[in-house]
Every structure is written in structure tokens, then in C-alpha cells.
Design goal:
By secondary structure, the protein is of the alpha+beta class. The protein has helices spanning 6-9, 55-65, 161-168, 184-191, 197-203, 251-260, 264-274, 290-295, 329-334, 353-369, 450-458, 461-476, 481-494, 496-506, and strands at 78-87, 106-115, 130-138, 141-148, 218-219, 224-227, 233-242, 280-288, 315-325, 347-349. The chain binds protoporphyrin IX containing FE. It comes from Alteraurantiacibacter buctensis. This is Catalase.
């Protein structure tokens, strides 16, 4: 009379409350074997050992043990949504990219917003840059516009990225702080990196504590190229402008929101979309030719500089609407893979050294994060246009090319698979390159303060006060006074009143200005 299940042992005749009895929802194993009892393992008697024979137990535990994949090395915490991009103004005279040519055309998109420094389990309202990554599933393949909510970056050359990220993330010995810039290592690094100070000014401004993901701007940061049917190149910078307006909170609010609801931004986006209040952004472009680029007082290939909108106006060409939440966070938001190198024919890269490093880095990290070379088979990453090539095999290959031939050239005629298309295929812009091979940057890359000052002076008095308060607060957390002094020495090259306010707030004497390269912009001091 040994009971065969827990329910039976409870004396209710074998019925468990977990069993629906509806055959349409019968639970199965991964192999499709129907499950009769998923709550009790197979044991040698009610008090005996658990049996190795129980394949259902083993499968359930094995699978659970492998649920985690590495979180993103940066931008680990994020939230994603589906949407649509509609073109309202054609750029056909500048580009052969289909997605930017046909007015009224709608292109399916997936967007992931993120913080940068914190781990996946950190909180939303950290003082941090926000990622704004957009995947457009165009008729000519996926176009990923992987931007941030700040138009410039901390570093000019990708070789500095590992150092930047190590300095921003948790300190190696103690493992904290994990989502704040307020610590010795970040300020040690920034104070030794004059090129970071334009972005540091943005980081200390209200921009880095947005009210909502719905109220941030987005920037592609780098110059890209548009290439038209004649092969002519036009430089372009991409902007996303929120129709909800640009809005931030103040630090006091951010701290309270983080305490009350660490998921505030993620919940806010989810609820807005869920209730039909779809957020929208206009896509803007700054278009300029080589002559305009040459006339700028700085190098547009320097990602720590922006092109003022007064000099090259932003032309609005389309609208992004986020209209559908994900069905499954892991399948979509966690497994989506963006890469700056994903561009359709008609869009190409500039020679920005930061961009070139990114083009390598994203694919490289995704090969590890998503377990091999076939992550484009995952639905959120799969192009919506036909995909035809001779690449095959590898872990988790879902779709291998059909047919006899798996190489080119081949002479199998129509059965021989896809062929190159010189007319419609992607062609890199033909540019002259002749210069000594050297670890060099162009001269104006050394002007680190002109645009930092321009940004500070563009702020309203109340915004300037917030920025000064943020610097005092953050630097007051730095334990070494020499690091504080080195940080303030950069502010002396940006704005002397700001430097004095911060030194005063920190109760320290005003240090000498940092040794500075000649400013290129003629701005009031
Ligand atoms: C992730 C933006 C610079 C390497 C991301 C994401 C964004 C972003 C938005 C998150 C993508 C997502 O939601 O999945 C930017 C911007 C940069 C920049 C705007 C400068 C203008 C760099 C550089 C490197 C780099 C210089 C390396 C050389 C990475 C890596 C990831 C990442 C490895 C994780 C990707 C993944 O695991 O899928 N970046 N980034 N980023 N970024 Fe960047």
C-alpha cells in the first residue's frame, strides 16, 4: 500500500491542484514526452533515495543549471520594445539605402534602452549614460544604430575602452560601487584623461538622470557616410528627438525613486506601451560634405566633439514608434545583439577610430555572450529579408543552406545557390588613404576643453547649478585629495567660475589649471 505520489500520500486520491486536466496544456519534457507528475521526483519509496533513472528530474535540473548567460560587459541592465520606423522625408539623393529612400515606408524595429555601468540587477536612476540601441529590419538587411543619450563619448580611440570601463565599473578588490561614478578609480582615470572632460560635463549635467526612457534623446555619435547611386559620399550624424520632450529629474528625486522602485524606468516604458501610450522619436540627420568637414575647427572623426546644430542643422526625416512590449524578456531583450558594423548598402563608416574598434568589439563579445556564430538565427536577431550564403554549421545552427553547393564559385547553375550582385550588393566607399603608419591622432583631437566650455555655457543658470552640485557631490566621495585637485584643474580650463564653485564646495584651494592644448573655438572665457 505504498502511495505512488505526494498527492496520494495526502489522501486525495491522486489529484493534485497543479493538474489542469486539460489535454491542450499537457506539460512535456524538452523531448515532448508528456509529464504526469512534475512535482515529485522518482524515489525508492517515500523515504528512500532519489533514482538516477528519473530523466524528467535530470532534464529539469540540467536545464535550470544552464539558464544564465554572461550579462553584457557594458550596458548590462536594459529594457527592450518592438516598434516601427516610418520615413517622412526621402534621402534618396544621398543614399541607396532603401530604408531612407521611400517616404511612407514602414520598417520593423527593435529598441533596447540601457544604463552603462551597473550590473543587470542594479537600479534605473543611476547617474549614468543611457544606451539607445535601434535595430531596423530593412529590406536590405539589418541596420543597427547603436547610440547613447549623449552626443559625445569619453574617449577618442577604442584602445582606451577597456580602461574606461574598468575605471567606471566596480573596483576590482571590493566589487563596489557598481552603478555610480562617485568613486576614486573613475575620477583618478578621468582626471588623467583630458579628452574625457567634454563628456564628463554632460555626465554631471541633468542629462544623466532622465525622468524616463521616453524622455531621452539618442545620438549615433560618430559620423557615418551616406553613399548614393553615383557613389558620392555625404557625411551624416544621426539624432533621435523624443516627442515626449527631453526631461530629467533632480538628484534628490533620483535617489528616492531608486529606493522606492529600482525598476522605475523599465516599468514606466512597459506601462506606457501596455496602455497604448506609444512613445515616439523623430529621426534627425546632420548632413555635411567633405568641404564642410574640412572647414570645422575640429576633426569630426573625434567622438569627443559634436557638430553644433546651429552650424549644421538637424533635418527630421522619419518617426520611430514603440508599440509592442516583448513576449519574453530573455528571448528578446537579453538575446538581442546590436553591432555598429551592421549597415545596409548606402550607409558606410567614417574613419573615426572609436567606431572602427566598435565594429570589431560587438560581434566579438556576442560570439561569447550568445554562445557561438549562429545568434542571427535567434528570431529577434534574424533579418526579415531573405538570407542566403554558404556559411554553415557551428553550435545551434538552426538553418543550414539547402542544396548541393556550399562553396563559390560553383558551376551548378540555378541549383548552385546565391551569387554576388555587384549592382545591389554592399560596396565600401572608395577613399584615398596614404599616410605613415603610426599611433597618431590628428592635431585638433588635442583640444579637450573648447566644447566642454561650449556645453557648460549653453546650460541655463539652474542647470549650471545642478552641474556644479553634482561635481561637488561626486568629488566629495573621492578619498584622495590629489585626485580631487587634478579634477578641478581641468575645470579651470573649462570655466573658472565653475572651478571656483567646486573648489569652494570641496573646501580646497583652487589648483593651477591643467596643462592644456590650445583651444580651437573662440568662446568667451
Ligand atoms: C554595448 C553604445 C563605445 C563595446 C553597447 C550598447 C550601447 C552602446 C547602446 C548596448 C547595446 C544593447 O542594448 O544591447 C555605445 C556608444 C559608444 C560605445 C554610443 C561610443 C560612441 C564602445 C566602444 C566599445 C564598445 C568604444 C569597444 C571598443 C561595447 C560592448 C557592448 C556594448 C562589448 C556589449 C554588447 C553585447 O554584449 O551585445 N554600447 N558604445 N562600445 N558596447 Fe558600446
Amino acid at each position: 500500500d505504498v502511495p505512488t505520489s505526494y498527492a496520494e500520500a495526502q489522501g486525495n486520491g491522486g489529484e493534485t491542484h497543479q493538474t489542469t486536466g486539460d489535454p491542450a496544456t499537457t506539460m512535456t519534457s524538452q523531448q515532448g514526452i508528456p509529464v504526469s507528475d512534475g512535482q515529485n521526483s522518482l524515489r525508492a519509496g517515500p523515504r528512500g533515495p532519489t533514482l538516477l533513472e528519473d530523466f524528467q528530474l535530470r532534464e529539469k535540473i540540467f536545464h535550470f543549471d544552464h539558464e544564465r548567460i554572461p550579462e553584457r560587459v557594458v550596458h548590462a541592465r536594459g529594457t527592450g520594445a518592438h516598434g516601427v520606423f516610418e520615413l517622412t522625408d526621402s534621402l534618396a539623393e544621398f543614399t541607396t539605402a532603401d530604408v531612407l529612400s521611400k517616404v511612407g515606408q514602414q520598417t520593423e524595429t527593435f529598441v533596447r534602452f540601457s544604463t552603462v555601468a551597473g550590473r543587470a540587477g542594479s537600479f534605473d536612476l543611476a547617474r549614468d549614460v543611457r544606451g539607445f540601441a535601434v535595430k531596423l529590419y530593412t529590406a536590405q538587411g539589418n541596420w543597427d544604430l547603436v547610440g547613447n543619450n549623449i552626443p559625445v563619448f569619453f574617449i577618442q580611440d577604442s584602445i582606451k575602452f577597456p580602461d574606461l570601463v574598468h575605471a567606471v565599473k566596480e573596483e576590482p578588490d571590493r566589487g563596489f560601487p557598481q552603478a555610480q561614478s562617485a568613486h576614486d578609480n573613475f575620477w583618478d582615470f578621468a582626471s588623467l584623461m583630458p579628452e574625457a572632460w567634454h563628456m564628463v560635463m554632460w555626465q554631471m549635467s541633468d542629462r544623466t538622470i532622465p525622468r524616463s526612457y521616453r524622455t531621452i534623446e539618442g545620438f549615433g555619435v560618430h559620423s557615418f557616410r551616406l553613399i548614393n547611386a553615383e557613389g558620392k559620399s555625404t557625411f551624416v550624424k544621426f539624432h533621435w528627438k523624443p516627442r515626449q520632450g527631453l526631461q530629467s529629474v533632480v538628484w534628490n528625486e533620483a535617489v528616492k525613486v531608486n529606493g522606492a522602485d529600482p525598476d522605475f524606468h523599465r516599468r514606466d516604458l512597459w506601462e506606457a506601451i501596455d496602455s497604448g501610450d506609444f512613445p515616439q522619436w523623430d529621426l534627425g540627420v546632420q548632413l555635411f560634405d567633405q568641404a564642410t568637414a574640412d572647414a570645422l575647427p575640429f576633426d569630426h572623426l573625434d567622438a569627443t566633439k559634436l557638430i553644433p546644430e546651429e552650424d549644421v542643422p538637424v533635418r527630421l526625416i522619419g518617426t520611430l514608434t514603440l508599440n509592442r512590449n516583448v513576449d519574453n524578456f530573455f528571448a528578446e531583450t537579453e538575446q538581442v545583439a546590436f553591432c555598429t558594423a551592421n549597415v545596409p548598402p548606402g550607409i558606410d563608416f567614417s574613419d573615426d577610430p572609436l567606431l572602427h574598434g566598435r565594429n570589431f568589439s560587438y560581434l566579438d563579445t556576442q560570439l561569447k555572450r550568445l554562445g557561438g556564430p549562429n545568434f542571427t538565427h535567434i528570431p529577434v536577431n534574424a533579418p526579415r529579408c531573405p538570407v542566403m550564403h554558404f556559411q554553415q554549421d557551428g553550435h545551434m545552427a538552426m538553418i543550414n543552406p539547402k542544396g548541393r553547393a556550399n562553396y563559390e564559385p560553383n558551376s551548378w547553375g540555378p541549383e548552385g545557390g546565391p551569387r554576388e550582385n555587384p549592382e545591389l550588393g554592399f560596396k565600401s566607399f572608395t577613399a584615398d588613404v596614404e599616410s605613415p603608419k603610426a599611433r597618431l591622432r590628428s592635431e585638433t583631437f588635442a583640444d579637450h576643453y573648447s566644447q566642454a566650455r561650449m556645453f557648460y555655457l549653453s546650460q541655463q543658470p539652474i542647470e549650471q547649478k545642478h552641474l556644479g552640485d553634482a561635481l561637488v557631490f561626486e568629488l566629495s566621495k573621492v578619498t584622495r585629495v590629489d585626485i580631487r585637485a587634478r579634477a578641478v584643474s581641468h575645470l579651470r580650463n573649462i570655466d573658472d567660475n565653475l572651478a571656483a564653485t567646486v573648489a569652494n564646495g570641496l573646501g580646497m584651494a583652487l589648483p593651477d589649471p591643467a596643462k592644456a592644448a590650445k583651444p580651437t573655438l573662440d568662446l568667451p572665457t
